[in-house]
Design brief:
The protein is an alpha/beta fold. The chain has one domain (about 10-250): Rossmann fold (3-Layer(aba) Sandwich). Helix content is about 50%, strand content about 15%. The chain has a seven-stranded parallel sheet, sandwiched between helices. Helix 2 (about 40-55) links the parallel strand 2 (about 30-35) and strand 3 (about 60). It starts with 7 loop residues before the first strand and ends with a helix. The mean pLDDT is about 90.
Length: about 260
């Protein structure tokens, strides 16, 4: 498939997990890539892998998305290199464990700063370029945006905000030809959980336990989510906007019982 051929896509959090899988899938489908991550080693590795799969070296931009100048530079560098922008994938995210009794304001600021504020700033800055190309945005939210879980209150709050940003932005930009959707994954086997202060052993145990909450009896992998992102970003989804597409093995439906 080359349904993204010639499209310019900016993907954040591209150094690992869902972002890396999305970058590789997009380049296989003919997209030109601007990739951002704060981990330079991981980002360059993904960029090099995309170059081997595709026809040109992606733009790689090391950026701390909680830093306003870094976000602005990312957008400027993308448009300067490619002259346009067709797709924005707001994927970068962080997770901090804690309850209302144990979470610090520093943790709160870190999570909301990357998961919400940076995505909002990127959307603001990219909107004029996406309007010019009648492009689209895919936000990576979570099944926990509407299903609270114990021990990750700020993360759940941040993803609820991403859902609202998706819906509001979809309405605001629809008349200008820009579609905005989200994917809402269940538990996906990435390093997000270890970054949320879990050890490798704790993360493995967590994944094994969480298989049971998904009706399909497994946790997801990054490719599952990348496929959904690619669909929403493609012309196959040309009449879809404001959608929250669950990629969660049926977890959201099970929660309704």
């Amino acid at each position: 498939m080359n349904d993204l051929k010639g499209k310019v896509a900016l993907i954040t959090g591209a150094g690992s997990g869902i972002g890396a899988a999305t970058a590789l899938l997009f380049v296989r489908r003919g997209a030109k890539l601007s990739l951002a991550d704060r981990n330079e080693v991981n980002l360059q590795r993904v960029g090099d892998e995309c170059a081997r799969v595709g026809t040109e070296q992606p733009l790689v931009v090391v950026a701390e998305l909680s830093c306003e100048p870094d976000v602005a530079n990312l957008v400027d560098a993308t448009v300067e290199k490619f002259g346009r922008l067709d797709i924005l994938v707001n994927n970068a995210g962080v997770c901090e464990r804690g309850s209302i009794e144990t979470t610090s304001l520093e943790q709160y600021d870190r999570v909301m700063g990357v998961n919400v504020r940076a995505a909002f700033q990127l959307t603001m800055l990219c909107a004029p370029h996406l309007i010019a190309t009648r492009g689209n945005i895919v936000n990576v939210s979570s099944a926990v945006a509407t299903r609270p879980v114990l021990g990750a209150s700020v993360y759940c709050m941040s993803k609820s905000a991403v859902n609202q940003m998706t819906g509001c932005t979809a309405l605001e930009l629809a008349s200008k030809g820009v579609r905005v959707n989200s994917v809402n994954p269940g538990v996906i086997a990435t390093d997000l959980y270890s970054c949320g202060r879990m050890s490798v052993e704790e993360s493995a145990k967590f994944m094994e336990q969480r298989k049971g909450i998904h009706p399909l009896c497994r946790v997801g992998d990054a490719e599952d989510v990348a496929q959904a992102i690619a669909f929403l970003a493609s012309g196959s989804a040309s009449f879809i906007t404001g959608e929250h597409l669950h990629v969660d093995g049926g977890w959201h439906a099970a929660c309704l019982r």
